[in-house]
Amino acid sequence: xxxxxxxxxxxxxxxxxxxxxxxxxxxxxxxxxxxxxxxxxxxxxxxxxxxxxxxxxxxxxxxxxxxxxxxxxxxxxxxxxxxxxxxxxxxxxxxxxxxxxxxxxxxxxxxxxxxxxxxxxxxxxxxxxxxxxxxxxxxxxxxxxxxxxxxxxxxxxxxxxxxxxxxxxxxxxxxxxxxxxxxxxxxxxxxxxxxxxxxxxxxxxxxxxxxxxxxxxxxxxxxxxxxxxxxxxxxxxxxxxxxxxxxxxxxxxxxxxxxxxxxxxxxxxxxxxxxxxxxxxxxxxxxxxxxxxxxxxxxxxxxxxxxxxxxxxxxxx
Amino acid sequence: xxxxxxxxxxxxxxxxxxxxxxxxxxxxxxxxxxxxxxxxxxxxxxxxxxxxxxxxxxxxxxxxxxxxxxxxxxxxxxxxxxxxxxxxxxxxxxxxxxxxxxxxxxxxxxxxxxxxxxxxxxxxxxxxxxxxxxxxxxxxxxxxxxxxxxxxxxxxxxxxxxxxxxxxxxxxxxxxxxxxxxxxxxxxxxxxxxxxxxxxxxxxxxxxxxxxxxxxxxxxxxxxxxxxxxxxxxxxxxxxxxxxxxxxxxxxxxxxxxx
Lengths: 317, 259
Ligand SMILES: Cc1cc2nc3c(=O)[nH]c(=O)nc-3n(C[C@H](O)[C@H](O)[C@H](O)COP(=O)(O)OP(=O)(O)OC[C@H]3O[C@@H](n4cnc5c(N)ncnc54)[C@H](O)[C@@H]3O)c2cc1C
Ligand SMILES: Nc1ncnc2c1ncn2[C@@H]1O[C@H](COP(=O)(O)O)[C@@H](O)[C@H]1O
Hints:
The structure holds two protein chains of two kinds. Chain A is of the alpha/beta class. Chain A has helices spanning 11-25, 40-48, 69-79, 90-103, 211-221, 229-233, 265-268, 300-316, and strands at 3-8, 31-36, 53-56, 83-87, 107-108, 113-116, 121-127, 132-138, 143-147, 165-168, 178-184, 197-201, 224-227, 255-259, 276-281, 294-297. In chain A, the strands form three sheets. Chain A has a seven-stranded parallel sheet, with helices on both faces. A five-stranded parallel sheet of chain A has the order 13-12-14-15-16. In chain A, helix 3 packs across helix 4 (90-103). The longest helix of chain A has 17 residues, at 300-316. In chain B, helix 3 crosses helix 4 (128-136). Chain B has helices spanning 39-53, 70-74, 94-108, 128-136, 189-195, 241-255, and strands at residues 3-7, 10-12, 18-20, 25-27, 33-35, 56-63, 80-85, 113-117, 139-150, 153-160, 163-170, 173-177, 199-203, 218-224, 232-233. Chain B is an alpha/beta fold. Chain B has a nine-stranded mixed sheet, with helices on both faces. A two-stranded antiparallel ribbon of chain B has the order 2-5. The mean pLDDT of chain B is 96. Chains A and B meet through helix 4, strand 5, strand 7, strand 8 and strand 11 of A and helix 3, helix 4, strand 9, strand 10 and strand 11 of B. Strand 11 of chain A pairs antiparallel with strand 11 (163-170) of chain B. The complex binds flavin-adenine dinucleotide (FAD) and adenosine monophosphate (AMP). Adenosine monophosphate (AMP) binds at residues 7-9, 36, 38-39, 42, 61-63, 94, 97, 101, 116-117, 119-120, 123-129 of chain B. Residues 7-9, 36, 38-39, 42, 61-63, 94, 97, 101, 116-117, 119-120, 123-129 of chain B line the site of adenosine monophosphate.
């Protein structure tokens, strides 16, 4: 019989992982415990989405959530879970790795798939910035795997008849960090995932004011503007929820138009499933052309306004 | 005086890997190595504490083939380097790597602050930093984009999905840094020459108490994820930008890609 855990600081990902956890224990009739940063109500939800036991791990006010690690280590030594799925948020990845070191066990970060037959597990994850996929076998348990949101799907219908128990975990007496301030991020302003047309801004834009060339094209096409990581993180020309790639957003628009983006693997990872990829770059050997359906070799300062004009004409007609 | 260590990984440059054939196997023939991208930020953090606040600053690495990296890393600011170079590390996982690094850091002794990158360019497991913290008994402070030394600890700003968390702690810590924490230097000629005079200490696995290295996971397969794309250049043959733009928009319309 196997014993599965899920740990998450976001409830949606917890519900998704619960469905996967139930699938993984199905043959053995094992139990599923959810460690959740949530309310009593969400604990009940977690039960109806597949948990047998819920242990609330509420966000501490004065210290970091990851400080629960020693408590989890103790719980794990007692309960001996076989597999621990952890929601792959930044907090989750930190907690998972610390837990793995304490339990001296394997941890697979951001796995895409996981199969388990009771004695061995097979997992897949991306490596080399998204250029390749690695298949990993683990025979040692516990096994920890982190999972990003939307990797698995939660049960469509909650089983409200399911019963379970809820308790609350306490923080350890001694913690290492004091949280002196939390500044919430301004609410997300853009939903790139639903935009049919996305224009990607890269370092080929020589100044911030040129971003408007991309905005005008996006507007003419009825779409949104996104960017590469350095545009958001180094230059701060666009907000961080707009950058595409392995450490940012993954999108599937009808058309992705990369302008002034070189096409390095970490960026391309985020547009792999776009229906059509278009690239504009002044370097005729830019790697982005190898992953594009259509491309124009040229200066984006000329090409983007020309595309805007052409789009307006087509839409106007 | 505080003692600071930056951990860097010597990785293959993923831009040189070619995906080949139906089997999508990876060809490493033309591969070059580099200091993992975000580890340059980690090194820069240490270098600046060394230059501005007089901290002692060392670099640490391990791998099967890391000696080629020594000159490069030493030109980026560390006063010296301690490393393990052993064929047994040809294939590693986060568990083994963090044990080796913890061994080196314990050997160095009395390290106040360990700085890692947010994740390595090749594996991007984002595990070694927090694993190292757990093995050393240090605090783990991840995804940091602002870092200050305090009297007896650090103050750090962590960038998380839902906002910024500012933390303070006393005692030693392992910090992982984001690329926006600084702009890594491009070593000057003077720094490159100075690097030649710096010391490097090679440690054997046995010297850090790690004779056997058991991997926690086995790699069954690594295969490229190529995309089938059309690769059509729109503006071939002396076409003007205006004509190319119109042709592209017409093409997208004909494909049914425009709403
Ligand atoms: C672990 C890790 C994770 C990462 N995650 C991400 C991620 O999630 N997302 C991401 O985007 N990056 C990520 N990166 C960074 C990535 O490797 C690249 O550095 C980045 O994507 C490059 O951005 P860019 O294409 O905008 O800039 P550059 O690579 O500098 O490319 C600029 C391009 O613009 C072209 N150009 C210049 N001027 C013009 C002009 N006037 N007209 C037309 N073209 C012009 C140039 O020919 C060049 O091709 C990651 C890196 C690492 C190591
Ligand atoms: N072999 C290594 N030698 C030194 N430092 C490493 C090594 N592997 C990983 N690191 C450090 O750990 C960080 C995270 O690596 P990873 O867990 O592989 O994503 C890197 O940015 C480095 O700072």
